[in-house]
Amino acid sequence: MPATDPFNVVFLGAGNIMFGSDEGPWNHSARFEKKLGDRFRMLAVVDPNLPRVHQTIATKRTDPAVRHAYLNTEVYGTLDDLIAAYKGKEDTIRVFVIGLPPAFRGGVTTGTDFELRVSKAFPNAHLFIEKPVSTGSLEDAFKLGEILSQNIPRIVSVGYMMRYLRAVSHVKKIIDEQKLIVMATNARYACAYPSCMKPDWWDKSLSCGPIVEQATHFCDLSRFFGGPVDLGSVQARALEWNEPAGKLTKIHPGVKEETIPPENRIPRATTAIWKYKTGAVGHLTHIVALQGASYSCELEIFADGYMFIIEDPYNTPRLRIRSPLSDEEEVIVCKDDDPFLEEVSVFIDAIENKDNYIVRSPFIDACETYALTCAIRIASERK
């Protein structure tokens, strides 16, 4: 019998990734609503921008389809306020969705220890954490991962939603069935930069730059297929903002790049190569160049006799496959694919079935992706 009991959730952070925006398909609240239906209860939202949160909740209450989930939602400005309010009733919260900026999480020191504070105050709650796991100390991120993994019943999932694409699942299935070993991965991520409207995104001191913040998805997918990376093999080069080829003409008017210290301005293109521990090779190119609204992204995976190309993962993903059976490519169009919904669905299923192994992006593994992106950034800035 399907469960019918209320499923209580708290959102830590109320930005675009949590409640949606015009910039992209991300919107965790919509996925929890769809997955849980009448069971979903948003117990509380924690965010310092209280007027925005109150307006968001008020809007949700006008929608008859989801009004039940937000009727009793409480709003808090800080985590300390939430902890105080739930003293003695900690176990009423089943899930925390942590979507505040990575500068405030992913660590074990004061100011970066958000997950640690949540896990201590609410030891039985499960955690869904946005990517990247941190923009701080890599060593501290791994320390946090070790701490979180010690609480075995707790499910922890990191928001690398592209691992849940149907095209990705199909490629994984073929690789496993044919007992293939990946020989090479080649990722390209070209963003439409006028839609990058957050000033922090353009400041490396705040976002860690586009490799850590954005290309992390394709570094993660590359690792998902290629396996562990030899970080000592990473080499990278970058086109900087002040080089002749680095001039951009359509930066969003809300972004005043000239006010960002020159040393903190982001590169326009970064290309990197590395070796996987199997001996396979990996390649990534990230480009801040396209205008309009649509990104251009794809990942190539090669193995003996096989080529897989995953195209347009944000919109209508397509999978092209060439196999030993024919030189002609098989093309699979994955219409109506929603990896955001799938990752939330798997996370909830893992909680209700007490099955940690179905989560495709555990925290420690996400730390390995953070390590790769940091290595690429450092190598690209090396003179």
Automatic annotation (TrEMBL):
InterPro entries: Gfo/Idh/MocA-like_OxRdtase_N (IPR000683), Gfo/Idh/MocA_Oxidoreductase (IPR052515), NAD(P)-bd_dom_sf (IPR036291), OxRdtase_put_C (IPR013944). Residues 7-159 form the Gfo/Idh/MocA-like oxidoreductase N-terminal domain. It comes from the Eukaryota. Residues 163-306 form the Oxidoreductase putative C-terminal domain. It holds the Pfam family ox_reductase_C. Transmembrane segments: none annotated. GO terms for molecular function: nucleotide binding. This is NAD(P)-binding protein.
